[in-house]
Amino acid sequence: MTFGKTARRLAALALTIGAIWLCGVRASADSADYDDAETPRNVAREALNKNYSGKTVILHSNDVMGAVEGYPRMAWLKQEFERQGAETILADTGNFSMSAIYSDSTGAAAVELMNLTGYDVAALGRFEFSYGYDAMRRNLRRAAFPVLCANAMEDGENICAPNYTYTTKSGVTVGFFGILAPKAEGNLNLMRAHDIEICQRGDIAQCVQEQIDALRRPGSVIPGADVVIGLSSLDGEEELTAAGYDSLSVFSKAKGLDMILGVSGSVMTAGANGERVQSCGESFAYIGVVVIGNDTKSIESHYLIAAETLESDETVAQAAEILQNRYKTGYNAIFARTEADLNGEKAPGNRTEETNLGDLIADAMVWEARQELQRSLTDETPLVGLLNGSSIRAGIPEGYITGNHIAAAYPFADTLAVVYVTGAELLETLEASAWCLPQEYSNSYPQTSGISFTLDERIPFDAGELYPDSIFYRPASVRRVRVDSVRGQPFDPKTLYAVATNSYCAGGSGTFHLFGEAKERYDFTTTVERCITDYIRYGLGGVVPEALYGKPRGDHTILS
To answer: Which residues pair with 473 in a beta bridge?
Structure first.
């Protein structure tokens, strides 16, 4: 990277940040080589003491989110390998732009920081959609590197380039393609991405093979790839493995694929059967290294380096510090306090049961909706609140509350919406959203306000057909959930209820398909983050009282 490009990219990042008005690794079963904390340090020292003349080195990251302190280390490592004679390629496998630190730039600051670091290629992850489809498209236009996705289509066309070839000065051609996790479709905010289709299940293998064949085949200008790499946000979760479209299954079926990079959230260098799949964990826990021989034009070795053992590039570190300081300055102002710890855990927590933080956020959406709808909402229409438990990402400890606490607890750019559904539709949604419990936590577990229900986990979920364009099943019968009351009144499956929710649920994403079909709805520009802040500041007078939120309200009864 020349000084001119570096200066321009730093300036672009500074402008992006300046325009903002700021109001652990999950180890996989295949990560045994990295269980010892000293091992990565030894790997780093050995790796950086070798001569890499005649080598091409791919450095890769995945699931970085807001760990901006890792980018200066990645930039330094790139320079270090080049000092040892290597040609380098920087790659990311997706999920790089969703974090509270990026929320007010809707992900743009992440892309500018990657530009400055010198990334050459990346894949689209499902969290790139977190700020909406339009914001994602704007961010891709900012990227100084191609962002790839082979299996997401809009009106029959790829939403971005499916593949890309990179030819080094030494004549090695590396072909990359991007694969978006099939379950991403269930996580897209369908209000903002109505026409996106993601091929899944058996179609994944076909899509992957098509990319390999296209990259291997030489064109009139671009030579055929010597090495083919898949950049993937597929993961190893049981539901994907059972269906045969996790990273390891895809690798074992593909012909001509040299390696897959990225298994969402995991740390691994190989599959149980030796599959060449490597992943770096979350938040720059590790940086992946793939060494290609320029003479053999094949992969010679691959390993992980603990990012914390590395030094930092000063220019990128300066940009990351600017971003962190802006974030801290804008969000560190105290505006309220809480008399109780507010639970932000996944399980047991917001994805398995009612929590006091879930109660608070659902109440906040109802409170804000009442302000917005006071002229149109009649007394005959009961107003309740509901949100998916997976939207809550951190707790709020007892004591003072800052904007940083709220942004961390709810880092998404979702806006408030109200949908009108019948009691029968609400009941089906509750049944579908707790489908897997108690076997594992449910991303869609409903945190509610004004809805009292009983969930009997002892009764198995009766899976019917898949919801349209979804990986989630419609319940063939409702037998696990019983709504006990709504706003203290008897539940009626024929009554129309107004549900204050986030735009993710209101758009029909995940298990909330029926919300997306609601014929009567109100969509607001107020973010859920703002709903929470305003409710605490004005609705509660600046204090979250222990009397109301010291423990879960008790609206959910779970029989197990």
So the answer is: 466
Angle, alpha carbons 232-237-240 (nearest 5°): 75
Continuous H helices in 88-183: 108-117, 133-142
Between CA 44 and CA 193 the distance in angstroms is 42
Q: Evaluate if pTM is beyond 0.90.
A: no
pLDDT in tens, 308-340: 989 999 999 999 999 888 877 777 889 999 999
> Which residue in 463, 460, 464 sits closest to 438, CA to CA?
460
Distance CA 16, CA 12 (A): 6
SS3 387: strand
Nearest by Cα to 404 from 99, 69, 96, 16: 99
Q: What is the pLDDT of residues 89-115, one digit of tens each?
A: 999 999 998 787 887 788 899 999 999
DSSP 333: -
Rounded to whole angstroms, the Cα distance separating 78 from 58 reads 9
Q: How far apart are the C-alpha atoms of 444 and 511, rounded to whole Å?
A: 7
Q: What phi-psi label fits residue 146: left (phi over 0), alpha (psi between -120 and 50 degrees) or beta?
A: beta
Other CB atoms within a 10 A radius of the CB of residue 241 amount to 14
CA 267 to chain centre: 17
Beta-strand relationship, 496-502 and 383-388: parallel
- Alpha carbon 311 to its chain's center: 28
What 3-state DSSP class applies to 149? coil
Q: Specify whether the CB–CB gap between 126 and 262 falls below 8 A.
A: no
CB-side exposure of 182: number of CA atoms within 13 Å?
24
CB count in 10 Å sphere of residue 487: 14
CA distance 277 to 246: 11
* Count, residues in the chain: 560
What is the C-alpha R_g of the chain?
24
Q: Which domains does the chain have, with CATH numbers?
A: 3-326 (3.60.21.10), 334-559 (3.90.780.10)
Going 542 to 543 to 544 to 548, the CA torsion angle's sign is negative
Name the residue among 57, 104, 105, 106 with its Cα closest to residue 79: 57
Cα dihedral sign, 398-400-401-403: negative
234 and 240 in contact (C-beta within 8 Å)? yes
What are the E-state strand segments in 271-414? 277-280, 286-293, 298-306, 334-338, 383-388, 399-402
Structure tokens at 43: 């790997």
Select the highest-mean-pLDDT range: 268-282, 509-523, 536-550. Answer: 536-550
